[in-house]
Design brief:
The structure holds two protein chains of two kinds. Chain A is built from seven helices and 15 strands. Chain A is an alpha+beta fold. In chain A, strands 9-15-14-13-10-11-12 form a seven-stranded mixed β-sheet. Chain A is globular. In chain B, the strands form three sheets. A seven-stranded mixed β-sheet of chain B has the order 3-2-4-5-7-6-12, with helices on both faces. Chain B has a five-stranded mixed β-sheet with strand order 9-11-10-13-14, with helices on both faces. Chain B is globular and about 60 Å long. The chains are: A alpha+beta, B alpha/beta. At the A-B interface, helix 1 of A face loops of B.
């Protein structure tokens, strides 16, 4: 199931109005097929379906203006149950400030909302030369990258954000590495609660003893790296996403003490699947989850009342099968409840 | 430091270089009567032998200057206005540009041809030309396009001291522009662009008098969140492409503003080089803002609409984000 959000066509765009839905609930949709028209800054852009499937739910009706990244529709595979209509949600950690900058160049300022690109029947989205180079240097297939530029143009930023889905598992037999990856990603959501009191106590003790505060997110990165090893997934890199949506990582997180990790994060240059530690869920929200086909797994952690932690792990197959996700979540939970294991 | 106008800065360069090197002399039509104010005080200081009036015979003037240069003098020829170069094309292209090469270095042609570009004021079809791209095409010629009094003085001194022929295209719309000029002697090297404004979103190359207009456009664009980088190449031959390419590698976008006619303009050449050598750095097609490919009419309202303007530059930069 994919939650389709209102895309951001230009860095100056803060919201948009859906002017028309081209499909109705229950209709089949194909990736790239026009799904709705969005008007922003006096220009109207046709938005294509992000994947093949069935339109399960129209969450934001036409004529409504919503902020960028609001979930506007849900697309699922045939036979999936429609979701109950959720309250308006904005994906955590997306830039809401029009002047904020995406990965990777923090110095760029905001250009105006773009005009739609010309019609290109049968030719696919435009791809800027910088994007082609970035894809070539990283061995990425442009066909699987979603373009966020005008008219769906693929930009360099899109390539740097995207990762190549791992090849279909050979044991299945039917898929070969050269088969086109057209199928909609399948997501699994795993939720677990754990007792966070030991973790809080440890962080407080470290603050007193070392005179510095280690952030929970940094500790999560270390815990996640250890948990991945335990689950037999040591080759999967770990990133964290900061409040502005930028992906940050540090190579070999297990090599460093947690306090040393704090200063070592830099822009992530991940050319493949990874585990993303999302920003802590707060602001009165109990729970959040991110469905991103570009990540193998996304971990959102909320701190609930009474010191409980809620872990929501969203994994995308085939990058991370359900069995692996279960092991990972279990190993993570163990480390958070007995945090001395993180330090080992 | 003193504030000087473009014309005063040119005059100072001529005056100072004549004092520095006795081989430097001025020749041209109406040179002695100081038609444009660029030779004030020269007769009094250096005498009539160092500043020669010439008849209306541009080819002859050029040939005499070329000959004088080849035997060791350093003439600075005042061509009055740019279209007057046309009658001298054979001398410029066949003799001035090629003699050093043809004689295997045994002769050199250290002359400067100065041509004013007057346009936008009803000069009409024959007297509003901006022909520097034609001379970019010819090997053996150096070309300077000063954008301010500071640039004009520094570049003209370099031109006079250069052992190769230099064409100086001076934009009359800058004549009353002012800059702070250092008291001490200074030169500006050829082939080194100036970074007029640092930016991150789009590179704008501005030629000659386009520089101040583009800086105004940059200020307006900054107010809407677009931060442009402005580069003044200063010389079109030699041309500092590495600086332009380095800038485009950072910004990914290029607009070239050139008051010459668009077809085969300096902008065309710069765009072609960046298309080839900087292709993978681009996020958008390269835009050019030039003069429409047509004759210049006498009616100034119609005329001025044909040239680049601040609004056209702003539109071109915005287009690179479309």
């Amino acid at each position: 199931m994919i939650e389709m959000v209102l895309p951001q066509f230009g860095m100056g765009m803060a919201d948009g109005t859906i002017t028309i839905w081209h499909k109705a609930v229950g209709d089949a949709v194909r990736q790239g097929e026009p799904l709705c028209d969005v008007e922003a800054a006096k220009t109207t852009v046709e938005v294509g379906a992000p994947c093949d499937g069935v339109l399960l739910q129209i969450i934001v009706p036409s004529g409504t203006n919503v902020p960028v990244n609001t979930v506007i529709a849900v697309i699922g595979s045939v036979g999936a149950e429609p979701l109950p209509v959720p309250t308006e949600r904005v994906r955590a950690a997306e830039p809401s400030n029009p002047a904020a900058t995406p990965v990777p160049d923090p110095a760029k300022s905001a250009p105006p909302a773009p005009r739609p690109a010309p019609e290109r029947p049968g030719r696919g989205p435009q791809i800027e030369p910088r994007a082609r180079r970035a894809a070539r240097e990283r061995g990425l297939d442009l066909a699987v990258i979603q373009g966020s530029g005008p008219g769906g143009r693929i930009t360099e930023e899109d390539v740097l954000r995207a990762v190549q889905p791992t090849a279909p598992i050979a044991a299945l037999g039917s898929a070969t590495p050269s088969a086109p990856h057209n199928a909609a990603p399948v997501f699994q959501v795993l939720r677990a609660r754990c007792d966070g009191s030991s973790l809080t106590a440890l962080l407080d003790a470290v603050a007193v003893a070392a005179g510095m505060r280690i952030s929970l997110q940094t500790l999560l990165v270390k815990a996640a790296a250890g948990a991945l090893c335990e689950a037999g997934l040591a080759s999967l890199p770990v990133c964290r996403r900061d409040e502005d949506g930028a992906l940050l990582s540090v190579s070999e997180p297990l090599e460093f003490s947690t306090s040393a990790l704090e200063g070592r994060f830099g822009p992530a240059e991940i050319a493949g699947a990874c585990l993303v530690i999302e920003p802590l869920v707060d602001g009165g929200m109990e729970e959040a989850a991110r469905f991103d086909p570009a990540c193998a797994a996304s971990l959102s952690v909320s701190v609930l009342p009474a010191g409980e932690l809620l872990l929501v792990l969203v994994v995308s197959e085939p990058a991370m099968p359900y069995a692996d996700a279960r092991c990972l979540l279990g190993a993570l939970r163990k480390r958070l409840e007995q945090p001395l294991a993180i330090l080992v | 430091m003193a504030e000087k106008t473009y014309l005063e800065a040119i005059r100072d360069a001529l005056f100072e270089e004549m004092g520095r090197d006795p081989a430097v002399f001025i020749m041209g039509e109406d040179a002695r009567c100081n038609f444009f104010g660029t030779t004030s005080g020269i007769i009094e200081a250096y005498g009539l032998d160092r500043i020669l009036d010439c008849p209306i015979a541009e080819a002859g003037i050029t040939g005499v200057a070329a000959g004088a240069a080849m035997v060791g003098m350093r003439p600075v020829v005042d061509f009055t206005i740019a279209p007057f170069l046309y009658p001298a094309m054979d001398q410029i292209c066949s003799i001035v540009a090629k003699s050093r090469y043809l004689y295997g270095g045994q002769a050199k042609v250290p002359l400067v041809l100065r041509a004013n570009m007057i346009y936008g004021s009803g000069g009409a079809a024959q007297h509003s030309d901006r022909p520097y791209p034609m001379f970019m095409h010819m090997p053996g010629l150096k070309i300077m396009v000063p954008s301010s009094p500071y640039e004009a003085k520094g570049l003209l001194k370099t031109a006079i001291r250069d052992d190769d022929p230099v064409l100086s295209f001076e934009d009359a719309n800058l004549w009353s522009a002012k800059s702070e000029i250092p008291d001490e002697d200074y030169t500006i090297p050829f082939g080194q662009a100036a970074l007029c404004r640092r930016g991150v979103d789009c590179t704008v190359v501005a030629i000659g008098a386009m520089v101040p207009m583009v800086l105004e456009a940059a200020a307006a664009l900054a107010a809407e969140g677009i931060d442009v980088e402005v580069i003044d190449p200063r010389t079109l031959a030699p041309l500092d492409m590495p600086s332009i390419l380095e800038s485009v590698a950072r910004t990914g976008r290029l607009v070239v503003v050139d008051v010459a006619w668009e077809r085969c303009s300096a902008a065309d050449h710069i765009a072609a080089v960046v298309s080839e050598e900087g292709f993978w750095d681009l996020s958008a097609p390269i835009m050019k803002v030039c003069t429409e490919n047509t004759h210049i009419p006498f009616n100034t309202a119609v005329e001025r609409a044909l040239y680049p303007s601040r609004d056209r530059v702003i539109a071109a930069v915005r287009k690179t984000f479309a």
